[in-house]
Design a protein that fits this description.
Elements lengths: L2 H4 L12 H8 L20 H12 L6 H8 L4 H7 L6 H10 L9 H15 L5 E4 L6 H8 L3 E6 L2 H17 L3 H20 L9 E13 L6 E4 L4 E3 L10 E9 L4 E9 L7 E3 L2 E3 L7 E2 L2 E3 L6 E2 L1 H4 L9 E11 L5 E3 L3 H23 L31 H35 L4 H32 L5 E3 L4 E3 L12 E5 L4 H6 L6 H7 L20 E5 L13 E6 L9 H16 L32 H23 E11 L4 H14 L1 E10 L16 E9 L7 E2 H21 L5 H6 L1 H8 L5 E2 L8 H21 L8 H13 L3 E3 H11 L4 H7 L3 E4 L2 E4 L2 H6 L15 H15 L2 H10 L6 H13 L5 H12 L1 H6 L14
Parallel strand pairs: 1-2, 1-19, 2-18, 19-20, 23-24
Antiparallel strand pairs: 3-4, 3-13, 3-17, 5-6, 6-7, 8-9, 10-11, 11-12, 13-14, 15-16, 20-22, 21-22, 25-27, 26-27
Length: about 950
Amino acid sequence: MSETYTNRPRLFIEKIMPIKLLNEQVYFENGGNPFKGLHRWYSRKPLAFSRASVLASVLPADISMDEFQYLLGVYSEQELGYLQQSNWLEDKEEKITSSVRLYKTPPSPRCIGRVHDYCEKVWGKRTPVVLDAFAGGGSIPFEAARYGFEVYGSDLNPVAVVTMKAAMEYPLKFGPDLQVDIDKWVQWVGNEAETRLAAFFPSPEGETVQNYLWAHTVQCPSCNSTVPLSPNWWLYKRPEKQNLHKWCAVKPIPKPAEKRVDFELIKGRKGKGSTIHTEDGDFDPNDYNTISRGVGKCPNCGNVIDNDYIASPSRESKLGYQLYAVAYKKGKGSLEFRTVEECDLTGIKLADERLAAKLNDWEAIDLIPHVPTPTNPQYSMIRNYGIVEWHQCFHPRQLLTLVTYAEIINEAKEKIRAECELEKAAKIESVENDGEAVAEIEDYYRGKLEAIATYLAMVMDRCVDVNCRLSNWVPGVGTAVRASAQHSLNLMWNYPEFQGYEKLWGQMSKFAYDYTKLCEMLGIPPHSTGIPGIEKYDPKTIKIDLCSADSLWHIGDKSVDVIVTDPPYYGTVPYADLSDFFYVWLKITLGDIFPDLFYVELTDKDREAVANPSRFRNMGISPDELANQDYEAKMALAFGEYHRVLRDDGIMTVQFNHKDSGAWDVLAKSLIDAGFEITASWAVSTENPQNLHQAKKNSVSSTVLLVCRQRDPNAGQAWWEDLRPEVVNLVEKRAPEFEANDITGIDLYLSAFGPALNVFSRQYPILNSSGEEVRPEEAFAEARKAIANYRFRSLVGSETAGFDALSQWYLLAWDAFRAREFPYDDARQLALAIGGFNVTDLVKTHKLLDSASGTCKLLTPQQRLKKRAFSVQEKEFSGRYLVDGLHGAIAIYQEEQNLQQVRRFLQNTGLVTNDLFMKIWEVGLKVIPDTVPEREALVNLRLGVKEIKDKVVHEQLTLDLKLDP
């Protein structure tokens, strides 16, 4: 092995990571974050996690964990001193780490200086070059910038690039003092909007309208009535005690003669269940729904309206819209609701007339986004309802409001430009013979115009996000939810409209007033620029570029010290399709400011490294297959570029959290083929379970950090049969370490992929006994088997001989997924790990699962009994599978509530004397969640049947989970 590869310094991330600390810090980053509040971006990684990824990738391995956490910002210098004393108390350390919020806390100047000292020893320079070419929302470049490193952040998507400029480039260049200019122009746009739009939003005296609530409508094909469509008619149902007396909804009032539906306001205190108590009894708004699962119902004639009729994939939409309620406030009072009044209809009519009068002029100067919406049906259902161009996402008054904002912003830019020119001329006059100073002044004022215009455009995008037919009204909170809340674009049957001249711009511009807080997060003091603690700060060290990761033309060979990157995960998030929703408006407001970013009609789908089947339809081959091949080719090119620009002793840290084994196989193959080996791996919980819908379904919550180095080109091939036992041994060795860091369930299986790759990637290629190249998926299969064996041994507390494979699968499914529902592929992989059957066997033969639409669901004992998966008649009970005995006992107890019958079943089948069966019972108590009825039955039977109680040890498992059965 060459000297370059043997003598490269070992880095901190290759030794250890503060997993528990990071797991805790991730949960603090919800709400009140000026960085995340700048602009919507999908799957943005937490700042604390990104900071640790960057810092651990640049620092040497020989520093202590205490020192690392001090440099991370967890401890002050004084606290570090206390920590290093022998009498340090663990509870005090815990108190410090739980009180700090890393995402809010910039590193101190002394920390930065100390980090630079270490970097000089490791990298031969105080500020190493850190690259992320899949930068997206910018978490990784932002954290690298906080330490004053030389940062290259790039992305193919212009929305991401503009967001990063606003997050890093402008605060570092202009400092907190730019807040004055931002405030001035945000206020100016708001004032102009009020002047131009107030007439279209009239309201009764004393009221300040907050939102107008609309329902989409369709003409009934039977009676020709206009039918407002809504799954319920709730307006307000906040659950807090102080709000239970003012629940509110509307009741549809059929008007068959007029061929319309009117509404009556229903208000009162909370009734039984989810109802409103009235003098006439409890009113349930759900009882009056006019659409369910896409199928409508006419209140006037009772006719069922099929979804095929409502949907209209052609250009002509069948949908209209009807205003049904208004949310308002009086003075400083709380939110109230009323039905529609004449003044509301007058405002709508005036808006329609104004839009019609201005439309041709606005279209002539490209203020109306006449560009196509996505054709990918997996993530965009709006085309099914006739929304084929982006401007159709808004009803007429919403569109009028937004285009007026855009018009005002474009006028504001000209005024800002004029002001900058005047100031610039005065400054240049004072340094007229200094060419370098003149160039700096030119650059400063060009950047100032860019910055202010960018923040105005971002306010505009926030308005777009909440004021459209894709946004949603949430009665349980009493507020609107943005259209981009999910990783898809969906039409909402009922949706809110903001009062356009005051409330919309006023509420959405609040984040712009947090610019100073963003500067504080970067550690920039008032009345200054740059980051303290850096000997000489140059804002040009932050390079934000629009480019594809597979062509880093602007970066030289072997010029990057550290790569930390979060690549796209197959087709999990179609970034380009989703961001077009914002791109079309940014092009209108910023196209002249950034012509190089917004020169094309829509974002680049062809070069995007996302598996997008909609790009490959009608090509004679499966679109999914072609999309996957395209993604794999692009990832290979991207990692090839990373290998080219990384210095020989550099390091690359890859963040990856896709749970599909195919995605892992492609990622690993791309890394290995590009010439990388994996030297370490760490799993950190980076997702909030509430965002993952883990209440009922299993979801992966951890991101695995894969630490990569350039593999020695002289490393020879190896044989898979020689490496297989090494993979198993390393996985089983690391498993307890992962568990000690709270990595459990499905995340434990994913975390095992790192150690497997550690072994698999050292040499290249890896061949089987036939001389064929082995893909990484073989190593992943061994890792899954190793974890399954390790977990089952841990659960039973002994050797696993004698336990049938079906019972092992059932218990390990609860142990891994902790939910009744989970993805089909996860069920398949677990079956492969255990061996002996497949998912089809589990569904059809053993009737342990139901499977539909890529999801599996564990059947209850009662359901399995009805399907005759087993019998509770002693003579017919086979006893081949222990899980059948367990389910038989539960089914009898749940049906009869009779302990004697359960005891008789266990005695007559011999299960009561079967030690393996009692051990299965014990494991069931450990792994089945508390709220699942099967567990409750197992607990009650253990308490009620002496023979079980004497043999089954019940250890309460502590899990902070809230699961529905």
